[in-house]
Amino acid sequence: MKRTAIILFVFLVSVTAVFAQDRKKTCVVGFYNLENLFDTYDDPAKNDEEFLPDGKNQWTEVKYRKKLHNMATVIRSMAETNGRFHSVLGVSEIENRLVLEDLVSQPEIADANYQIVHYDGPDTRGVDVGLLYRPDQFKLIDSESIPFDFGSGKIEFAMEGEDRVSFKTRDILMVHGLLDGEEFAFYVAHLPSRIGGKGWDLRSRGAEIIYEHAQKMMEKYPGIKIVVMGDMNDNPTDVSMTEFMHGKGKPEDVGEDDFFSPFMSMLKAGYGSLAYQGTWNIYDIILVNESLLNAPDGGFKIRPVGKKGFYGVIYKKPFMIQQRGQYKGTPFRTFSNGAFIGGYSDHLPTYIVLEK
After folding, report:
1. Which region, left, alpha or beta, applies to residue 112 given φ > 0 means left and ψ of -120 to 50 means alpha?
2. What are the domain boundaries of the chain?
3. Do 333 and 341 meet the contact criterion of CB atoms below 8 Å apart?
4. Helices 97-104, 61-82: inter-axial angle, 10-degree rounding
5. How many whole angstroms separate alpha carbon 109 and alpha carbon 74?
6. pTM of the complete model
7. Residue by residue, what is the 3-state secondary structure of 329-348?
8. Dihedral of the CA atoms 193, 194, 198, 204 (nearest 10)?
9. What is the pLDDT of residue 175?
10. Does the structure show a pLDDT above 70 at 47?
11. What is the CATH number of domain 25-355?
12. What is the mean pLDDT of residues 137-157?
C-alpha cells in the first residue's frame, strides 16, 4: 500500500510538471543580416546601381525572387525548429520597405502575418535596418529612427572636418511596444563597417548612442525590458560592446545599468555567425537588459537553449553552408567573387528565447 502511494505521488508530480511546462509562454526574438536584399528598380536617392538588371551584379527579377525565397526558407526553417515563428525579428541590409513587403508575403512565411517597422535611412550604400513582428503577440506603441552623430564626450574620433559632415551611416531603429502585455523596447542596428580594420571609434559611438537612449527609456518606463540586436561589425568582446554597450558575458556580473551579452561566451567557445579570412566571428549580436535577464516569475526572461546551456543560438543548417570549394564550411552567400551563386547570406541568423 505504501509503495503504491509513493508511485502515485511520483506520477502526480510528473504530470503536474508537464502541465506546468505546457502553460509556459515562449517567444523567439532574433536578428538576421539579409545580405544586400535589393529590389530591381533604380532609386535615384540610393546607391543601388550594382543591383539593377544592367548593373554589375546583373540583378534580375529571377535573382531577386530567388533571394526572397531563400530568406523566407531560412525564417521558415527556424520556425519549424522552434515550433513557432519569431515574435520579433530584426533585419539589416535591406534596401527599402518594398523588399520587406515582398519578403513577408512569401508563401513560406506568409502565415506568420508579419508586420513591418522601417524608416528610410541616409546610408551611402543604400541599406537600412528594419523589424518584423507578429501582431498577435506584439502591440506596437511607437518607434523612432535614431541618427548617428559625433556628440560623444568620451571618444576621440579619427574623422574630422568635412569628412564628418559627409559621413552617412545607418540609423538605429527603436521599436517600443507590448510583447504579450509586457513593455519592451527593441533596438536594431547595423554599425559602421570594419573596412581596412578601421572604424572602432564609429562603432563605439553607435553603441554609446544605443546605450544612452536605452537608459532614457528605462528612466521613462521603469521596469521596461530591452533587447538590443544587430550586425555590430564587432565581436561581443570588442570595446564597443563591452565598454560602450556595457555588455557582460556572465549573468552574475550584470548590474542594473549593464546588458547581458549571451554571445560573448559562445564566441569564446569557438562559435561564429560569419567567417572572414578563415576566422569565425560573431557580429550578429543580441543583448538584453537586467530587467529581462532577472525578471521575476510570471514575466518574460531570457532562458538557456540547448544542452550546452548557452543563452543564444546561432542558427546553422547544412543547406545554409557552402559544401564545396574555396569557402567550404562558411555561410552560403548570394555572390562569390562577383558571381551569383544563389545562396542565402554571408551571415547566419542569431536568436534568443524568452519564456514566462
Report:
1. alpha
2. 25-355
3. yes
4. 60
5. 10
6. 0.93
7. CCECCCEECCEECCCCCCCC
8. 60
9. 99
10. yes
11. 3.60.10.10
12. 97
